């Protein structure tokens, strides 16, 4: 496969590697061997040449003087961040020496990998690494921090991560953006909706924060956090009661509509209004708008699922397009994540078959703090890559305490000396995605994309794939799978007859064209991978597991009597904690705010711009109050995962619970409660 590394000047196609649904096609401009500009690829069918501000400034991150260039070993105390450079040989020898000792003394489960999608490339995110950890028999990480609850919940209804093709949404007449801050997190869906809006489409946003997405809407509906299941059930109540359902669709393509019709009688608008904070007349208006507008699209965001009841919430909302028969209409339907269409041969990439110990224990990444402090037998070594748990994981104080353990041998592989890396015994420098070969599968649009290396590795940095090849050698693993090249692995991934939609994608053509669309059958809903093959409004699967078989509202856990429900979401200019350490992005974002309702602020003597202490039994931080009407009474919201800075208590995840959501082992970042008071200056 071609690489662009040897061409010092020119414009080269690339892909955005960040954990973002849009997965933009990029053009990377090089001068004298260095990236001087990153822009959108105008030929990309979906993203069409526009990209976000974050990535327009990507070159500043790639060449940030703080970027790691060499392996390091710790010389200070854990967390202090004092390190000395070492060679790769010494780094690999040190790691494998410790691991061999741990394996013989305590078994391989004493070692835990911790990773997420700092790089969405299928090879660097989950291929050689998992081959290695499976071969080793290490404890297995449940990678549940992002879309686990909602992904599983959606599948109880739809059977797979299948939804509407975003390219069709230019025809949509009604967008319901539900629990998604799309202006910041799915900007190309906003652009497509803008096109539709020119043809008369209306945009409804349902959120607990009137942020930039709410301000963009034609109609913003504020809702109390964690109550959306009730709102969806209230809509269903009206759709059935006023005969706005598509009976023929329900009869042919769903199971359980009669049971659902009876079941939702209890969710009358006044009951639902009392739960959700949405006035009954607005519930009527929304249901009637939804029941009479076609094509209509429900875009389900990740905000809904980061709650105690998040799985059931997404399962419930996923039923709505079936009630109105919207799956039949171009531009109609729903969308949570579309990654099912690009499902590839993960068995071949990850080789779970080589798992030495079939009973290997699993550790939920959302409770990593508790796991590091309490698991018995203990985790004695942690290998972190493509993730920054010291900032992104809940119960942040527990996470830091766990990372401080003297007997924990920690390795961190990253581009920067992150908050997590500061606790490492060994730090390894990672390449950026522009330095790698990889392939990408969007979880929103239907394109697979190829990444050919654009620049040479920064300093001595290495890709995840390369590091696991070295670790395998160091451990004495001689399996052939560790010799596979990137090209070998892409070919293996594409060999996957189980997904008929992948038939349109061949390796040769992908190399030639850089992106190819899955051959998705628009009538996918006629044969779904649910037990019944239909859309399951009633789920026997859920029933067997002890859940309510029909969509049902369960309130959030009342974890304390603190007065505010606290929703700490992502912000516009960072991507999770990525960019929180880059001057340009921090400058754009300025400082972390706490959005508060004016009545609450007044009652507590807090004025706009005051520094406030936000606390609960898990921890505390200090943010700047932004007082107004963007949140309902009893709710406070912050945005962004802010970097550690001396004297600034900005680590919001010290406040978030590590309780596990109702489905999929998901996170509950937005189900915590806090108190707020003014800091005396
Ligand atoms: N700019 C930017 N883009 C990103 C990211 C980023 O950090 N920055 N992160 C990326 C990643 S990994 C992900 S998972 C996605 C996440 O992006 P989204 O899918 O947009 O999810 P969130 O931003 O977590 O939450 C979306 C909205 O849900 C609202 N919300 C919270 N709880 C509730 C509730 O109970 N009901 C309702 N109706 N709304 C609620 C929040 O106020 C927020 O506005 O974005 C990706 N893109
Ligand atoms: N309070 C709160 N917490 C949250 C969320 C929230 O909404 N609120 N969102 C949650 C969600 S949805 C998610 S997805 C998680 C995300 O959490 P993480 O997956 O930890 O995401 P990032 O913070 O972006 O950190 C990714 C790291 O990977 C590194 N990296 C990038 N490319 C590579 C590579 O090729 N190799 C290696 N070795 N490293 C690389 C980057 O430099 C960066 O330090 O955060 C979760 N945490
Ligand atoms: S972060 Fe998202 S919007 Fe920005 S360039 Fe990457 S894929 Fe596109
Ligand atoms: Mo995420």
Q: Shape, please?
A: globular
CATH class of the largest domain: Alpha Beta
Across the major sheet, the strand order is 5-4-17-16-15-6
* DSSP helical segment count: 26
Largest sheet: 6 strands, mixed
Task: Find the count of extended strands (DSSP E, 2+ residues).
Answer: 27
Q: Cα-atom Rg, whole angstroms? A: 25 Å
Which cofactors or ions or other ligands sit in this model? ligand MGD, iron/sulfur cluster, molybdenum atom
- Poorly predicted runs are none
Helix % is: 25-40%
Q: Helix/strand-derived class?
A: alpha/beta
| Domain count | 3
**What separation lies between the terminal Cα atoms?**
60 Å
Mean model confidence by pLDDT: 97
Tell me the β content: 15-25%
CATH architecture of the largest domain: 3-Layer(aba) Sandwich
CATH topology of the largest domain: Rossmann fold
Family: Belongs to the prokaryotic molybdopterin-containing oxidoreductase family.
Protein name: Molybdopterin oxidoreductase family protein
Keywords: Iron, Iron-sulfur, Metal-binding, Molybdenum, Oxidoreductase
Pfam families: Molybdop_Fe4S4, Molybdopterin, Molydop_binding
Structural account:
The structure is a single chain. This protein has 681 residues and is an alpha/beta fold. The protein has three domains: 72-146 and 360-441 and 450-507, 3-Layer(aba) Sandwich (Rossmann fold); 164-336 and 524-544, Dimethylsulfoxide Reductase, domain 2, CATH 3.40.228; 564-678, Barwin-like endoglucanases, CATH 2.40.40. The chain has 26 helices and 27 strands. The strands form seven sheets. A six-stranded mixed β-sheet has the order 5-4-17-16-15-6, with helices on one face. A six-stranded mixed barrel has the order 22-26-23-25-24-27. Strands 10-9-8-12-13 form a five-stranded parallel β-sheet, with helices on both faces. A hairpin with a 4-residue loop joins strand 24 and strand 25. One ligand MGD is lined by residues 19, 116-119, 124, 145-146, 302, 385-388, 392, 413-416, 418, 430, 464, 568-570, 575-578, 641, 652-653, 656, 669.
